[in-house]
Design goal:
CATH superfamily of one domain: Periplasmic binding protein-like II
Helix content: 25-40%
Number of helices: 15
Distance between the termini: 75 Å
Mean pLDDT: 84
Radius of gyration: 24 Å
CATH class of one domain: Alpha Beta
Order of helices and strands: HHEEHEEEHHEHEHEHEEHEHEHEHEEHHH
Number of strands: 15
Largest sheet: 10 strands, mixed
Amino acid sequence: MLRRDPLALLGLALLAVLACARGPEEAELVRALEARLEAGFEEGLFSVRSFRRRGSAPVSDIGDGSEGLFVYYDAELAFEREYSLTSWRGLNVGTLAFVLGATEQGISGFSAEGNRKGDVLSVSGRLAWRGAPGGTWEPIDDVTPPPRVEAPPFPVEGTRPGAVLRGVRALIERDPGVPRPPRDAAIVDELERAVERLDLRFARLEGKITLGSGQPPGTYYDFGAAFARQASAAGLPLHNYASEGSVENGFRVQSQLLSFGLVQSDVAETLFQGWVEENQLPQPDLRSVASLWPEAVHLVTLEGSGIGRLADLRGRRVALGQPGSGSRFSAFRVAAAAGLAPGDVPDVREMPLREGVAELEAGSVDALFVTEAIPAPALQELARRRRDVRFVPLQPSTVGTLSDRHFAYYPLTIPARSYPGQVEAVRTVGLASVLITNRRTPGPQVTQVLELLVDGSEALSREYYRAGFISGATMRLGIAVPLHPAAEAFYTARAGKARDPAPGGGI
């Protein structure tokens, strides 16, 4: 048994106490929190009702060699007017969490129906500070901790398939996000996809419901992971499959290799009707279950690129989503509506979002297309790291062409302050994230999933905040694919129940 020196333990405890006492005074912390809310979210929306410092931790390097400090806190914020943090238009919980230095799970008290004046949010977050001359402290934007050092190699114990698979899983799960040499990264990426497909086969063999989501980090994957946990807790075994995205999910649902899939509404509409550009026949067995939340097409560049509109992409290097993603699909749709021919953009690179962001920062590409809910976490982090991130607006004629030709699109603006440093609203097109299934999926299974989405939405939103966007008023918005019969029956029954008078109420 390992024995610990009491004096050493006392010393560690004393250091912890001193660390907690360091940094700015509480009044200064409150002023910094109020300033962040005013500058980064909505002016005059919140007042700080209570604030409690929970501790602090040093940051060895904040990028300029200065001493840094994280201060952790709990606070209560009171609404000063009515506001919805789950509205399909406007700033939402994702942006608020980023401003507060919190996770979405660290904010509670928001309502899917909107909050009233006097309602209170409970927040657990952190503020970042830099040591200034004279022993004072100044607030700074949050900083991202440095990546961990890659672990040493590990052996694969045994040659049986199960042992090899365990070794491959350990390799994939070891030090996520740490840069690898290109060949190693390619090997790990391919192994990861193979393991995901194996897990999907295992889930189907075990009789689980399967849901195709997307790649981490991303909105689809995070929702799929939260929904799988919620379903399993409710006695409905569900496997979250980390697919390439909307297009792959649509094809796998059509062929019944997935029970359900998360798909952009523009992708669902095109797959159902037939994809002429890709010589794909219609997928007539697709059926809609629910519309979940709004999404937006983002076109991102860096200041100095000379790209201020879509037409400026001619002759430039552009990163899209990977081949099975909705981002790639939407990018081609938007470019075509703007009059860009395939040869106008000679260097198009299909890659996952995290790789696209890295290529943009490295100067290997000039622009990046991303279709995701606002705010996209990867773009939040990019805009926090760099002050030269710019969001390119779409021309009104392009927005009009898209919304006129395709039911799935509608005019949308990315509200100012959705991302760090974004001072103006950005004109673009919106669409919806849709949950789809196959027409042969058993009705009771569809009903179970819908009941979990609707009746368990409050608990689910605590797991992943975007579930708070799901409501009876929006679950059929932007759907261009016929509803599954069980979904149609579910909505009809719920509408009838809502019209029924309360028991004993009379007429």
